[in-house]
Automatic annotation (TrEMBL):
InterPro entries: Complex1_LYR_dom (IPR008011), Complex1_LYR_LYRM4 (IPR045297). CDD domains: Complex1_LYR_LYRM4. This is Complex 1 LYR protein domain-containing protein. Residues 8-65 form the Complex 1 LYR protein domain. GO terms for biological process: iron-sulfur cluster assembly. PANTHER family: OS08G0239000 PROTEIN (PTHR47158). It comes from Salvia splendens (Scarlet sage). The lineage of its organism: Eukaryota, Viridiplantae, Streptophyta, Embryophyta, Tracheophyta. It holds the Pfam family Complex1_LYR.
Length: 87
């Protein structure tokens, strides 16, 4: 059984996800990643069962890995023109 993550670990995961979102060069992907991160943390805010909290934290860690890999891929194929939202 996994242990319940500490508040510091959860906040660190949140900050890491938000930092990773900033690495996306495309405005739409960057904002989607930020919005999805905030929504997921708000949705899981009221979890009280340690097993559910640990499962949500583990899912967040796996999502962080996915986001980091996708940021690298998107940076390799970044569009040469900025979005209208960034101009």
């Amino acid at each position: 059984m996994a242990t319940k993550p500490t508040r510091r670990e959860v906040l660190s995961l949140f900050r890491s996800l938000m930092r990773t979102a900033r690495e996306f060069t495309d405005y739409n992907i960057r904002e989607y990643t930020k919005r999805r991160t905030v929504d997921a943390f708000r949705h899981n805010r009221k979890l009280s069962d340690p097993a559910e909290v640990a499962a949500a934290f583990a899912d967040g860690k796996s999502q962080l890995g996915v986001a980091k890999r996708q940021a690298v891929v998107y940076s390799l194929y970044a569009p040469s023109i900025k979005s209208v939202m960034e101009m």
